[in-house]
Amino acid sequence: MTLNINEIRKDFPILQRETNSGARIVYLDSTATSQKPVQVIEAMNEYYRRSNANIHRGVHTLAEEATAMYEGARERIARFINAASSREIIYTRNTTESINLIAYSWARANLKAGDLVILTEMEHHSNLVPWHMLQAERGIELEFIPVTEEGLLDLDVYKTLLDRTPKLVSFTHMSNVLGTINPAAEIIKLAHAVGAVVLVDGAQSVPHLSVDMQALDADFYAFSAHKMCGPTGIGALYGKSSLLEAMPPFLGGGDMIKEVKLRSFRANTLPHKFEAGTPAIAEAIGFGAAVDYLTKVGMKEIAEHEHAITEYALERLEEIPGVKLFGPAADKKGGVAAFTLEGIHPHDVAQILDQDGVAVRAGHHCAQPLHEKFGIPATSRASFYLYSTKEEVDMLVNGLYKVKELFG
Ligand SMILES: Cc1ncc(COP(=O)(O)O)c(C=O)c1O
User: Which CATH number among 3.40.640.10, 3.30.40.10, 3.40.50.300, 3.50.50.60 corresponds to the domain 41-296?
Assistant: First the structure.
């Protein structure tokens, strides 16, 4: 079934607005953050209007309603990624915090000097810097699966790195620059065969692909609500319960405890053990509404739509003299098109496109080492989601011809 784009676009009020110069917004920056449908905005409003109270602690009507909404969202998020249990879903602030939770709790309890962590050259800074910090503190070793010219991971090199029996393999399921969809199941299986634990950065995959925790067999999986039609300020860490049970708590305080004495405490059960203090309640409820929305539209249909848009975008961008595209062909990637325009700085490209309401991102997209690998400081990046249209791609392409004209 194809998506009814006109109906979908009506759900996103922001897509109807204009810039200050009167141009209609052409939002091609969903990789940075997605737009939010009215269903998510209303769910959060409704909580504040009708049910606002702190969770878990009260027996009054509002506290019970708020708790049920907060925990109900967790159940639906668990189902969305086919986790075995909602106890395996920890609310965090975002993907970055989910990865840091693993670096602070699991890694500091399990890694010592000389232990090897395998990452990749296409990681977002979120999945690099926490490991740099641990390397400085503990003396762990870091190795990187190289990225080929085509923008794929070199799995032959990965296999040779596995001979060194890493303790952890951590990689992005989908690149936020190249769009590459990595063969996660295969990477995980190979890591498990040598006894490594696997953490997957799912910031770009969960919003765009149908992901199944039990089929993938990832040990940990991190993602953010704001990239999947949900609000900012909330994300999730999926973890196998056996691993989460054995981990020490991350942040200490209220809610993550079972009992506190003056000189000691006992940690709460999962998932609360990792959720200290009053959480982002409205945001969790918005996260649940986002998952409901995506489920209703259909993840398979969303992926197919994005594929069609990406294929069209790559085709049209390739036609433009001086455009260089990064990343593999459309059949190996999600809805991301990173490119350079010969002789023109990506920031200038983005600024001129903005004059016609076309929103793309310019810079290193928090993947500086990847850009270094390709010998460039920055790219322009257009990215697509369920509400993107071929007409918007045409607007981008027309805009790029205009940029070329302006810069001679
Ligand atoms: C692949 C990838 N990982 C991690 C992140 C970080 O996500 P957040 O800023 O929501 O923590 C991003 C955000 O762009 C991303 O694209």
Answer: 3.40.640.10
